[in-house]
């Protein structure tokens, strides 16, 4: 009995010790992230964010400036081997993080964004998500921009799937 009570106290002690260690780590991390040298690190960085920034410093990633329709811009970092899809994911993460920190919870319908706008580099639309950015000539410090994207009915690209309706066809009689 005494041993189980002793284990319980030890586990509570370990828990409190772990909490203190985690609080110290969070405090140290917050202090580091406030340093101007680390201004490009997000407030709550993921391992992939840190990995991409390290690769940027090592030269195996690139910083791309994204010009919005209101003529403001922001930078994202992606690996040199990134595709258009990877760039879109980086943009989505950057915008969502900025919106969250500035305005609290705000939902952006990225499905709507990508259905009505696309990215362009030197007037060439980046429509195929699987194509490498380097195939478009995008390098470090390049600038891409959002442009309106109108889907052509003849090409059937990005066509919207018709929703199955249970009563579809009943009014033909």
TrEMBL record:
It comes from Dillenia turbinata. Residues 62-149 form the SNRNP25 ubiquitin-like domain. CDD domains: Ubl_SNRNP25 (cd17058). This is SNRNP25, ubiquitin-like domain. One of its GO terms (biological process) is mRNA splicing, via spliceosome. InterPro entries: SNRNP25, SNRNP25_ubiquitin, Ubiquitin-like_domsf.
